[in-house]
Fold this sequence. Notes:
The chain is α/β, with parallel strands linked by helices. Helices cover 36% and strands 15% of the residues. The site of NADP nicotinamide-adenine-dinucleotide phosphate has 26 residues, from α1.
Amino acid sequence: MKHILIAGISGAIGHALAEHYLGRDQQLQIIGLCRDPAAVSFDPAVADRVSLVPWDAASSTDPGETGSEIARVLAAEKGLDLVIYAAGFLHGAGIQPEKRLEDLNAEALAHAFAVNATGFAILMRAIAPWLRHRRFKIVAAVSAKVGSIEDNGFGGWYAYRSSKAALNMLVRNLSVELPRKCRPLACVAVHPGTTLSPLSEPFSRSLAQLKVHQPAETAENIATVLEGLTEDSNGQFLSWDGSQIPW
Ligand SMILES: NC(=O)c1ccc[n+]([C@@H]2O[C@H](COP(=O)([O-])OP(=O)(O)OC[C@H]3O[C@@H](n4cnc5c(N)ncnc54)[C@H](OP(=O)(O)O)[C@@H]3O)[C@@H](O)[C@H]2O)c1
């Protein structure tokens, strides 16, 4: 049986990815991390293959505790074949993406870093024992093209951009270290493409000029990209269409 862990399974993209994989492979089990498991549901035909684990990227800062929670539903020896970090924060609780320097705020920056970057780092530390098996495995962090330093010609969105750039650096660092103990593996950052979700919803007017995907389409796009990965893909920043994005 294949085991997939999705952090942020309550989100539009995380949930659509879970549905995608559950629908295509009757033999897989999903471990879904989210703040409120009671708010997440699946079709009864597949729901018994999903184990939900309470987790908050901003406050689950003890890797040992997170590891113990995950161990209740999957023993480390069984291993994870795919890890997707689909949690992310752009706006909420009075925080909006900054248009200019005057909008910068320490609390907003700290929260964006906590959810978009630190949460991933601590989770990876927690699940390292699940990655030691000999099968090919993938770690995919859902990042964002706006986190590309080279691509940034527009500015703004300080907290989101810089926290996604930090996430990208974590991916790159892990791509160097993980193969030492967890080979064969590919650790990548993935830009999902603009997708209809609560995260993108406030920007729907400006999104009108862009190609906007439904979450199910995005899940299919990401799954196709991940399917094509090999050990040679380790350390890449990939877009939803498989093209490479400069870091
Ligand atoms: N939508 C786009 O156009 C787009 C474009 C580029 C990149 N992305 C990235 O894609 C990923 C998924 O976003 P989405 O579009 O699916 O948005 P979404 O539906 O708003 O999902 C966001 C997810 O992040 C979780 N989250 C937020 N704060 C959290 C916290 N403190 N602890 C744990 N989980 C937390 C949410 O959990 P709750 O349900 O508990 O709030 C939810 O599962 C994000 O990383 C986002 O940056 C999206």
